[in-house]
UniProtKB/TrEMBL annotation:
InterPro entries linked: HTH_MarR-typ, MarR/SlyA-like, WH-like_DNA-bd_sf, WH_DNA-bd_sf
Protein name: Homoprotocatechuate degradation operon regulator HpaR
Native species: Pleomorphomonas diazotrophica
Gene3D superfamilies: Winged helix-like DNA-binding domain superfamily/Winged helix DNA-binding domain
Location of the HTH marR-type domain: 4-140
Length: 145
């Protein structure tokens, strides 16, 4: 009888394998992995309300606050109050932020292509669908308090 796979170890290994390929580019840019996740999300959807950014990057609000201060001080992002609701902060990626993460984004796209070439786009999509199904089934997302 075959042993059941250790799901936690399998998922962590897959995650770490992806991040490990990007770490050299992040190091050159002077970014941590959570900082890159924030900038990567802003590249796709800028500007964003800070609370949505926290939810979409799985970064706790308390950590996001510190990350945003650092990224703003480095001119990678800009923050502004939302006019409709002054309690909400809009966060946007600056041109300098786009330039800074460009090499990481290229490495990320190349990794996606390398995986598709090696195991097929359908397998990559099936893996993503399966992982989404697991999250939906469990009903808890990272950062939920």
């Amino acid at each position: 009888m075959a042993a059941e796979p250790d799901l936690m170890k399998t998922f962590l290994l897959a995650y770490e394998s992806v991040i490990e390929t990007l770490r050299p580019s992040m190091k050159v840019a002077g970014l941590t992995e959570p900082q890159w996740r924030v900038l990567h999300e802003l590249k796709a959807r800028s500007p964003m309300i800070a609370s949505e950014l926290a939810a979409n990057t799985f970064v706790r609000a308390s950590s996001l606050s510190r990350i945003l201060r650092d990224l703003e001080a480095r001119d990678l992002i800009a923050r502004a109050q939302q006019f409709e609701d002054l309690r909400k902060t809009l966060v946007s990626l600056t041109d300098y932020g786009r330039k800074t993460i460009a090499p990481i984004e290229i490495a990320y796209a190349e990794l996606g292509q390398r995986l598709a070439d090696a195991i097929g786009r359908e397998a990559v999509n099936a893996c993503a669908t399966a992982c989404s199904g697991i999250v939906e089934q469990i009903g808890v997302q990272p950062g939920d308090d």
